[in-house]
Amino acid sequence: MRDIDVVVIGAGQAGLSAAxxxxxxxxxxxxxxxVLDHAPRPGGAWQFRWPxxxxxxxxxxxxxxxxxxxxxxxxxxxSEVIGEYFTAYEERFDLRVHRPVEVSAVREGEGGxxxxxxxEGTYATRALINATGTWDRPFWPRYQGQETxxxxxxxxxxxxxxxxxxxxxxxxxxxxxxxxxxxxxxAEVAAGTTWVTRREPVYREGPFGxxxxxxxxxxxxxxxxxxxxxxxxxxxxxxxxxxxIRDARERGVLDRNPMFDRITPTGVAWADGRTxxxxxxxxxxxxxxxxxxxxxxxxxxxxxxxxxxGTRAVRDERVHLVGYGPSxxxxxxxxxxxxxxxxxxxxxxxxxxATS
Length: 356
Known about the structure:
The protein is α/β, with parallel strands linked by helices. The protein contains six helices and 18 strands.
């Protein structure tokens, strides 16, 4: 077991931002804090994105604090561009990320410390910054007959790009940014596509400035304050009505169908008797916060989420969640990293007090 002041779990945008601000306040990596990441290399969740998601298609990628991302080729895969950027960032600020390291659980320890149990041993820490994001918890809805489908089912997390769907009949489920991107790509090569969403898509026209962004974040923040599972910021902003989306709507690609009622061996069916045959069902149905390792601390509220004030867990001031709920966007993750470190420095300056 090793004593340390701060453990950061996750080295995506939020985790690297937190590590940067820890260094700026005078804490040293591997002496005062440690960053643990389960991924095989730098890049956060970006390293797992499908090759056809080029950097030019990425919406709202905000630079990490202290180092801009400049001169990137918009035609290159975002996984490569951002992976290289994160690599250079970790090296410039000497963040010494430990990887690949799996965190299995965080428990109450002695003397007011938390025990972070990992594949490289246990850390006894005075504060924890959890920056684990959502990529590791894809959400798969369940529908009657799902296990009988004879075709292929996959989730955004496994999306390989459009080439594998050439000549196939594909149902895309989900009305978010990923769902529409998958659908528009697949429609170029598939024998046929069907788009299904639970709610009517909401398209956003005109500029999306700071005022609109703050309003969207406030809606997500309100849920977190009430102890409900967070929604993504994107879920309350609507889909930007780009030229590509306008074109896809005109061509009938983005012709939305209501959610089907059951899955059959050959496709899907609605209660009114309508059916669609398919070879593939692609679930672009989002993600949930990857926080199961925090379960021993019993931070969840009856509503199912962790109640957070700023970035601090209301039930335990030693635990900060960054990239969670309102700070899930790239710019929000940067701000959350700074805010968490500010509070943690105040905590560290106090005498350690054992918790009951």
